[in-house]
């Protein structure tokens, strides 16, 4: 089973132009690469052409040494005294993260969370195209969420194949999440993001990432409590 919790990331592989096997990037570095990419895209929008490692590190909330080490996994493209070319580094990190591929996302569950995800405008700008949304409630099926029409989950496999969806988000109750996940995997999808409050089982070769907001709040509460205790680092 390949299962990834909310503190880990799928590890992309960076193609090597010389034909050697692609190298894996450590999960913690993958998480930070997404921060660098966000900062770089902000700089691009502001018309900035070059950035120093110190400035990029500060914008990403990491140290300069950490940033340089992370970027070494995708090749170092900085020039001493000149910095990094923003557009080039942005494109290269995007390629390392797999964002140059055509990612089509289907959302299963058209409740409040599923609808909010379907309407979120940030996915498209980051390379993710939401192509379908499903629900089992016949009062919801056929309604519109943004530009999408809610499909019947009974037609899950047909719609997944028709839309070419290669990522699925599960915004479902715990009781039905495993069954739907099994159907998604059987339909050929190998990347699943689950918001369901239950541990799902998937076969080897399927990347499952779980987001548990209650757990994240509990972790946040722990750190907040330590911050309020004299002499205890957060």
What is the topological layout?
Elements (H helix, E strand, L loop, with lengths): L2 E2 L8 E2 L8 E2 L2 H19 L4 E2 L1 H8 L3 H9 L11 E2 H11 L6 E6 L3 H8 L2 H4 L2 E8 L8 E2 L2 E2 L1 E2 L3 H8 L3 E4 L3 H13 L4 E4 L12 E4 L2 H15 L7
Parallel strand pairs: 1-13, 6-7, 6-11, 7-10, 11-12, 12-13
Antiparallel strand pairs: 2-3, 4-5, 8-9
Helix pairs in contact: 1-2, 1-4, 2-3
Walk me through what this model shows:
Residues 1-22 have low confidence and may be disordered. The chain has 234 residues and is of the alpha/beta class. The protein is 41% helix and 18% strand. The two termini are 34 Å apart. The protein has 2 domains: 3-96, Orthogonal Bundle (Arc Repressor Mutant, subunit A); 103-215, Rossmann fold. The chain has 9 helices and 13 strands.
Please identify, by name, the CATH architecture of the largest domain.
3-Layer(aba) Sandwich
Number of domains: 2
Q: How large is the radius of gyration?
A: 20 Å
Mean pLDDT across all residues, rounded?
85
CATH homologous superfamily designation of the largest domain: NAD(P)-binding Rossmann-like Domain
- Beta content comes to 15-25%
Q: How many H/I helical runs?
A: 9
> Alpha-carbon distance between the termini?
34 Å
Q: What is the 3D shape?
A: globular
CATH class descriptor name of the largest domain: Alpha Beta
- Estimated structural class: alpha/beta
Order of helices and strands: EEEHEHHEHEHHEEEEHEHEEH
Q: How many β-strand stretches?
A: 13
Major β-sheet strand ordering: 1-13-12-11-6-7-10
Largest sheet descriptor: 7 strands, parallel
Q: Runs with pLDDT <50, length 5+?
A: 1-22
> At the third CATH level, what is the topology name of the largest domain?
Rossmann fold
Helicity range? 40-55%
